[in-house]
Amino acid sequence: MHAPGRLRGRRLGPRSQWLRSTRRRRVDGAWGGLPLLGAALAVAAVCLVAVLRPGAALEPVGAVAAENGGAAVTAPAALSLPEGARVLVFGDSWVYGSAALSPSLGFAYRLAGELGWETIVDGVRGSGYLKPGLDGPAYGERIAQLDPALDPDLVILEGSINDRRLYPDGYRDAVTAAWNALEARYPDARIVILGPAPQVLPVEDATRRIDADLQELAGARGWWYVSPLGDDWISTANYAQVIDSGPVGRDHPSTEGHAYLAGRVAAAIRALSEQPEVVAEAPHDEQLVAP
């Protein structure tokens, strides 16, 4: 399943964006209403600093302290992948292609045709960050076993709903350890975290909390996060067409569902590739005008 690796030049990683704090200025010998005006403008500017998630409203990601005490946001740079990029798609049974007529019809394999990629698919049924799978260990141990020579341009790390019965004990630590190992294994690869998608409706509470944890942790690293839950990829309107809830499918995407998911993931990646880094600054004191 693993293709031999190759070396190539690399791009710089995500850049931290910063927001400078506003300064008050005395106008005509009196402060007047400027403190309130400056504070309001600063708050408005912070609200504007955000990272676009595909199909969703602006969302701040990974705020950190700025040099002058203001708030800054770590924003991932737009994806820039070479033509014919090598992409590792890593995850659970959804990546494996379970419930499709053939695993090769799973969404992860279909991405090659959707985006013109060379894809390496590594899916283990039943696995998660905490939970070992049917055919292999949990994510952290699996990542440690990946071939460094794969040399992917991009890693899409998916899932996983399989952790919902074990969550939350040790979950964030397991995610952090797995992601640290992935960065160490492929330090030049771009990384996109693809959150869990619902296998049943209504969405289980633990699945929503996993989605929220992963989004927060990805934001803190300046990584792109794609949320099938947040963007309603699977809803009551299309559930029957996407999910095979019968005894064979066991709440996995059908062949048609995998095709649909491949289209959604491809659209999300295209959106990440086209997104500018959105930065807004509060106006400097020279821009303030006395009321």
Please explain how this structure is put together:
The chain has 291 residues and is an alpha/beta fold. The chain has two domains: 13-78 and 275-291, no CATH class; 86-273, SGNH hydrolase (Rossmann fold). Helices cover 31% and strands 13% of the residues. The chain is built from eight helices and eleven strands. The chain has helices at residues 34-48, 93-96, 107-115, 139-144, 171-185, 205-221, 239-242, 255-274, and strands spanning 51-52, 58-59, 63-65, 71-73, 86-91, 118-123, 154-158, 190-194, 224-226, 243-244, 252-253. The strands form four sheets. The protein has a five-stranded parallel beta sheet, sandwiched between helices. Helix 3 crosses helix 8. The chain is globular and about 40 Å long. The N and C termini lie far apart (67 Å).
Strand order in the largest sheet: 6-5-7-8-9
Q: Pairing-aware structural class of the strands and helices?
A: alpha/beta
| Radius of gyration based on Cα positions | 22 Å
> What is the end-to-end distance?
67 Å
Q: What's the CATH architecture name of the largest domain?
A: 3-Layer(aba) Sandwich
**Overall pLDDT confidence:** 79
Helix content: 25-40%
The largest pleated sheet is described as: 5 strands, parallel
> What fold name stands as the CATH topology of the largest domain?
Rossmann fold
Which residues form runs of ≥5 with pLDDT under 50? Answer: 1-73, 277-291
- What is the number of independent domains? 2
Strand content: 5-15%
Shape: globular
H/E element sequence:
HEEEEEHHEHEHEHEHEEH
- Number of E-state strands: 11
Number of helices: 8
CATH H-level homologous superfamily name of the largest domain: SGNH hydrolase
**For this structure, what is the CATH class of the largest domain?**
Alpha Beta
